[in-house]
Amino acid sequence: MPKKKKNRYNWISDFVYGGIDGAVTTFAVVAGVEGASLSLPVILILGFANLFADGFSMAASKYLSDKTDQEQYAKIRRREKKHIEANSSHKDDELDRIITKYGFAGKDLEAAKKVFQSNPDALLDLIMRNEYNMTQENIDPKKGSIVTFLSFLAIGLIPLIAYVLNPLFQLDPSQTFVATCIATLGALFIVGAIKSRFTDRHWLISGAETAFIGGVAAIIAYIVGFLLKDIMA
After folding, report:
1. Nearest of 36, 18, 15, 38 to residue 26 by alpha carbon
2. Model confidence pLDDT, tens digit, residues 62-115
3. How far is it, in rounded angstroms, from Cα 213 to Cα 220?
4. Cα Rg for the chain, rounded, in angstroms?
5. Is the C-alpha dihedral spanning 46, 47, 48, 52 positive or negative?
6. What is the mean pLDDT of residues 136-143?
7. Could you give the C-alpha distances from 29 to 4, 6, 135, 146, 183, in angstroms and in order?
8. Distance CA 107, CA 121 (A)
9. Dihedral Cα 205, 208, 213, 219, nearest 10 deg
10. Is-contact 208 15, C-beta < 8 A?
């Protein structure tokens, strides 16, 4: 029997969601500091601290989540394999019940059963999907965490670029924040448009929705920063 081909890791989805989270959270930090009218060094310190700490946290969560999914799938699959090997009658009953759901009956049902009975891997996949609603996804915990972290840093850096370059170009503080808003919302729109590849939504709607969510998060952070500034005054 030929060796089952391993699913290829799909990095695009991890890049998209890591990038969205990086841009939104860093943009919110910048907006909150701007709302509180704090200085440029404070923006850079809090912005970069959030960028690296939150990026690492998200990458670690991604790794642990994917690894847990893989381990859970493997555990249940091993248990089902032992159960099938020890109880052939149960295997037949389970096959009848599952394949009947797909509309097979009579000779077609028997023919379909023979196909799965001759292919243990296909039989286990069928049972995992129908009995546990689980499939072997094309995930890789290590690669996924690395891509998520790098994406978080790359896209999350955008809200800080104008502030990093501020001493060089001597921009007015309001101009710096406006430039940051435009660049960040534009980046979120592009990432959101890319995200539409994984859904049935139009790229324009997906991009606008992602930019809108980032904008709302920034507005909330700005208002909170502004209110806390007055309270602490």
Report:
1. 18
2. 999 999 988 998 898 888 888 877 776 656 777 778 888 888 878 887 888 788
3. 11
4. 25
5. positive
6. 84
7. 47, 41, 38, 23, 15
8. 23
9. -150
10. no
Tokens of 141: 């915990």
String of DSSP letters for the chain: -PPPPPPPP--HHHHHHHHHHHHHHHHHHHHHHHHTT--HHHHHHHHHHHHHHHHHHHHHHHHHHHHHHHHHHHHHHHHHHHHHHH-HHHHHHHHHHHHHHTT--HHHHHHHHHHHHT-HHHHHHHHHHHHS-----S--HHHHHHHHHHHHHHHHTHHHHHHHHHHHHT--HHHHHHHHHHHHHHHHHHHHHHHGGGSSS-HHHHHHHHHHHHHHHHHHHHHHHHHHHHHH-
- Dig out the tokens for 56 from the structure: 């690492």
Q: How far apart are CA 58 and CA 148, in angstroms?
A: 7
The pLDDT, as a whole number, for residue 1 is 43
- Angle, CA of 103, 106 and 108, to the nearest 5°: 65
**Cα separation of the two ends of the chain:** 75
As a whole number of angstroms, the distance between CA 168 and CA 11 comes to 36
**171: its two tokens:** 């921009």
Q: Which structure tokens are listed for 187? A: 């980046």
Name the token pair of 65: 């989540």
Residue 168: is its pLDDT beyond 60? yes
